[in-house]
Amino acid sequence: LRTQVGIVGAGPAGLVLGVMLLRAGIDVRIVERLPREAVLTRARAGLLEDRVVRFLHEHGLAGRLAKEAVRHGRCDFLCLGRRLRFDYAERAGGAHHWVYPQQELVRDLVELLEAEGRAPYFGQPASAVVDTTGRRPRVECADLVLECDVVVGADGWHGVSRRALPADVRDGVWQRYPHDWLTVLAEVDRPVECVLYAIHERGFAAMVPRTEHLARLYLQVPGDEDPARWPEERIREQARLRLAAAGSGLPRITAFRPADALRMRSAVVSAPRHGRLFLAGDAAHILTPCGAKGMNLAVADAADLADSLVRQFLDGDPVPLAGYPERRLHEAWRAQEFSDGLLRLLHLPHADPADGRPAPADPASRFEAQLRLERIRRLVEPGPAGTAFAHGYVGSPAWLPA
Ligand code: FAD
């Protein structure tokens, strides 16, 4: 099958790119490993940055989002029994997050593509991206081959596109944190009023709003933990313990969906381009969920690449596309820096999730907690530290094409 742009992966990056290019009159084909229903129901991220929502609005990609997304501009830190309120939107000049589950954005984008007569090929895993430095790179699947002018790998960190990069580029720079996060969608009796971050001797915990009756719960667990070791009662007990300082602000958890363990690692490829292959989203960089950057970065990559490809294909201007790798690496590292800083703030060394036992009376651990409390105070009080944090959290004003 001949096309101008072949895209591997129908996540936020591949779908945003696909819609943008089609609307500009560029032929696009998307192949996706999973069946349609699995893609449309996969719950992952949920916090969209203001600039990303503005971009989606300006390009007519935010029809349902405009009606259903809920604005959030506050997160509370829980530390040493205190709850410190942080109105970050106020500190970031009014920029907010919008709570809109990733699977809903994905559904909207898939429906837009279907309406344009270019539904992704679902259930069609690519086995390889080949000939990336030739004139006609190809995406090879079991039942079809895409012969393209340009291939975009938007198939996540474990997809096949990254493997088509030279060995010294594809692994890039990475780090593995010593702990993981257990993640579980909790059914709640009322919405979580804001993001809650708890720093606790038993380990970090967070509760993040998703929908009126769903919240995402994160619990720090030892590295490579098996989620099977976390039955519902243990999750409930640890959530209660670590989030206790939220007091009556915590909704009642009525049920849990199956828990999963998130391996806490971060990585950025050395260059998100090789010949006529470009990488976007998680294929080019993975972040921990700390700071809610992954989906936003994926959409920002797609927006940049769409603009660059349109200028290349329609105006014959190669300059924006040539600058794509450098711009995206810069923004990926900016996001990594924020996410890593927040993660280090929120995790105490030697946190011990032991059940039932009282928290350790370890003076070093207490000292660390006291330092975190002071850092958080510095964030929430008026001053440059909080303002810088607020801007980083809600999204840097980095370049995103209008
Ligand atoms: P993906 O969404 O991973 O899409 C890649 C697609 O490629 C998938 O559909 C996959 O099936 C497909 N694919 C893979 N291999 C192949 C192949 N060989 N052939 C064809 N298709 C293939 N980010 C935030 O911004 N905020 C958050 O709050 C947040 N919370 C998260 C919570 C969880 C539990 C998880 C797991 C992630 C979270 N993230 C968050 C990260 C966010 O979900 C990702 O960064 C985002 O999905 C990246 O989008 P993408 O399009 O690059 O990749």
Automatic annotation (TrEMBL):
The record's listing under InterPro entries reads: FAD-bd, FAD/NAD-bd_sf, RIFMO-like
Query: What SUPFAM superfamilies does this protein map onto?
Result: FAD-linked reductases, C-terminal domain, FAD/NAD(P)-binding domain
Q: Which UniProt keywords apply?
A: FAD, Flavoprotein, Membrane, Monooxygenase, Oxidoreductase, Transmembrane, Transmembrane helix
Question: Mind telling me which residue stretches traverse the membrane in this protein?
Answer: 6-26
Q: Name one GO molecular function term.
A: monooxygenase activity
Could you tell me which residue ranges the FAD-binding domain spans?
A: 2-338
Q: What is this protein called?
A: FAD-dependent monooxygenase
